[in-house]
Amino acid sequence: MTSRLMLLDTASMYFRAFYGVPDSFKAPDGTPVNAVRGLLDFISRLVTDYRPTHLACCWDNDWRPQWRVDLIPSYKAHRVEYVVTDGPDVEEVPDALEIQVPVIRDVLAAFGIAVVGADGYEADDVIGTLSKDAGMPVDVVTGDRDLFQLVDDDHEVRILYIARGVGRHERVTNSVVQEKYGIDGRQYADFAALRGDASDGLPGVNGIGEKTAATLLQRFGDLPGLRAAAADPDSNIAPSPRRKIIDAGDYPEVAAHVTRVARDIDLGKPELLLPLSPVDPEALVALSEKWNLESPIARLVESLTNLR
Q1: Which of 142, 198, 204, 304 holds its CA 20 to 30 A away from the CA of 38?
Q2: Residue 261 near residue 290, CB atoms below 8 Å
Q3: Cα–Cα distance between 175 and 253 in angstroms, integer?
Q4: 3-state class of 222 per DSSP?
Q5: pTM of this prediction?
């Protein structure tokens, strides 16, 4: 079997499962398990369709890293439930989902599926690091457009974009990014910094939207090139965007440090080989019965077995 690495933006997937799978699915004690069931079925489908040899559930050890907040204080501020002085702030998450996250961790552990996170970093940064120099084709599963910056046709890194659902996901290569936005994937972090992203609390450069951001990057390549052109009175940048870039000061490049995923985290050497059978079948049986997960667990077991 040809080696292939699949990297899951796990929170993106279990949030999607929580809102997409009926909340009528409950454990015998009444605990909701729709997110657990949905995530397991997502993994089953992806494993069946793409047959990865290696897989990691990438984790948000810190969903709002302080180093990003220090750069842009508004970063994800609207999603903070309460501030923690000596650790990561607590994200606003529905109680019915929050209670399922430990169950997800337990089930993944019983399967032997790798969960990889890093303190002080988001899952995006883990994905960025694991996808770099992976030595094999990489599929990144996410509903977050920011990860389009990782697309690399030369190294066979693509995005399986699940914004419209796992069953209707889109395979995003550099040509797709070019068709959608008129830029290369490697320019996406600068593009996001310029146009802003309300979902992450990033205001962008005042008066510059998606089309203008793309046009400017087409002409000047990246933010340093764009800022240099704006500062050069002899450059051929139009007066309106010139003034907007100058008025923005250092914001665009600071914001780009926030939107650009880290790619050099020390993750040690996690074992990402996808097990073809559960590493702890007894624990998996117990979890299956306790949480009413018999069907989705059986489907994932079958999907893994069929990889043999």
Answers
A1: 198
A2: no
A3: 25
A4: coil
A5: 0.95
